[in-house]
């Protein structure tokens, strides 16, 4: 069944009432079946926490539905979490590598690994150390496209290198949501998403997703999530479920808008010669692997480097439609002077997350301010 249909019908088998729109279940606890009482000690350990509802930290109806749909959309057993970061922690805890090889990646993932190395002895390396240090049971973590640049990293290349030495590849695919790319075709072993971004798509919920290759690992991760206390809340799960229904429409439109905006800026770069120094986006990358990776379209996020931090400040203050805020993936376009939230980034970098507005309006909004900067009017 196609992506669009799965996103709407992937949880039909979970219907418990005749309502077409699933109800918002807020209960934190569920009545035991008094005709069939089994003590916790006697429970079959192979039964998943989602199969018999007991307490909402274990599982709840909205999370169960969510995992049904997302597992189909990602083509693999998936577990949902309260945020992208809690999903990342859960993966490191389940796969417990002794050595983690981290590419340049979202800055909080670097900080998460630092915490685990401080408390648990995890050794953290860069990708340059793979040949010398990587071995069986270790984990390579890459992010593609890379935040905040929106440029792709060669996932297949790192999957091959991981597998050659018995290690696994964790791909943070937040910036390449389905249907833009299929990480399993690229050799990923574990796929992570900040569901807060394109899955949620409306800047109104936090969620994380880990997809793995087998049902048993997903079941174990759900059991561990119970102890970590990181299941997404009921209301957030309901909102996420509603968001998934339109995911294909949103993501395709966002990707098309972004690529069109990047093309416009690139084609007219000479007109903003003293403002716009560089554009980062997958659609401008020449490497062969990029098109093979982004089979459904390039990602909906890109970055520009301006001539000075002062120009960045003036740009983000003067655009009207692009909202000056961090995060990405929502239906509304965002712009961010990235130095506001990342202390290690180039102070001349502005990140843009493209929404579903009409492309002509987005181009007008951005270009009108770039023109004023170029002419010295600002
Ligand atoms: C690439 C990437 N991974 C992970 C995260 C963390 O996700 P969350 O904010 O949902 O915890 C983010 C958040 O911006 C991100 O951009």
From TrEMBL:
Pfam families: Cys_Met_Meta_PP (PF01053). Gene3D superfamilies: Aspartate Aminotransferase, domain 1, Type I PLP-dependent aspartate aminotransferase-like (Major domain). GO terms for biological process: transsulfuration. Its cofactor is pyridoxal 5'-phosphate. GO terms for cellular component: cytoplasm. It comes from the Eukaryota. The modification N6-(pyridoxal phosphate)lysine is found at residue 197. Keywords: Pyridoxal phosphate. One of its GO terms (molecular function) is carbon-sulfur lyase activity. Belongs to the trans-sulfuration enzymes family. PANTHER family: CYSTATHIONINE GAMMA-SYNTHASE (AFU_ORTHOLOGUE AFUA_7G01590), TRANS-SULFURATION ENZYME FAMILY MEMBER. This is LADA_0F12134g1_1. It comes from Lachancea dasiensis.
């Amino acid at each position: 069944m196609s992506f669009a249909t799965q996103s709407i019908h992937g949880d039909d088998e979970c219907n418990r009432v005749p309502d077409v729109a699933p109800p918002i279940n807020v209960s934190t606890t569920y009545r035991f079946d008094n005709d069939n009482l089994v003590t916790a000690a006697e429970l079959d350990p192979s039964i998943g926490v989602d199969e018999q509802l007991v307490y909402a930290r274990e599982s709840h109806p909205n999370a169960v539905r969510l995992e049904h749909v997302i597992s189909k959309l990602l083509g693999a057993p998936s577990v949902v979490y309260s945020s992208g970061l809690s999903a990342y922690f859960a993966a490191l805890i389940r796969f417990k590598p002794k050595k983690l090889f981290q590419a340049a990646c979202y800055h909080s993932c670097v900080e998460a690994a630092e915490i685990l190395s401080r408390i648990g002895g995890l050794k953290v390396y860069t990708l340059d150390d793979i040949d010398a240090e990587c071995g069986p049971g270790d984990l390579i973590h890459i992010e593609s496209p890379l935040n905040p640049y929106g440029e792709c990293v060669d996932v297949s290349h790192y999957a091959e290198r991981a597998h050659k030495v018995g290690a696994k590849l964790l791909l943070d695919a937040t910036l390449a949501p389905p249907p833009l790319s299929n990480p399993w075709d690229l050799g990923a072993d574990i796929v992570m998403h900040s569901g807060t971004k394109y899955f949620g798509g409306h800047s109104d919920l936090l969620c994380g997703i880990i997809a793995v290759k087998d049902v048993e690992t997903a079941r174990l991760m759900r059991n561990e999530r119970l102890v970590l206390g990181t299941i997404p809340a009921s209301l957030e799960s309901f909102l996420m479920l509603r968001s998934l229904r339109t995911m294909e429409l949103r993501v395709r439109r966002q990707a098309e808008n972004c690529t069109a905006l990047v093309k416009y800026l690139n084609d007219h770069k000479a007109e903003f010669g003293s403002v716009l120094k560089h554009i980062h986006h997958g659609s401008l990358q020449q490497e062969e692997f990029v098109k093979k990776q982004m089979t459904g379209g390039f990602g909906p996020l890109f970055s520009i480097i301006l001539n000075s931090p002062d120009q960045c400040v003036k740009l983000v203050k003067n655009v009207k439609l692009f909202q000056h805020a961090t995060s990405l993936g929502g239906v509304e376009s965002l712009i961010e002077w990235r130095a506001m939230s990342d202390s290690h980034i180039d102070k001349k970098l502005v990140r843009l997350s493209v929404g579903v507005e009409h492309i002509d309006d987005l181009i007008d909004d951005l270009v009108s301010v770039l023109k004023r900067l170029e002419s010295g009017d600002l």
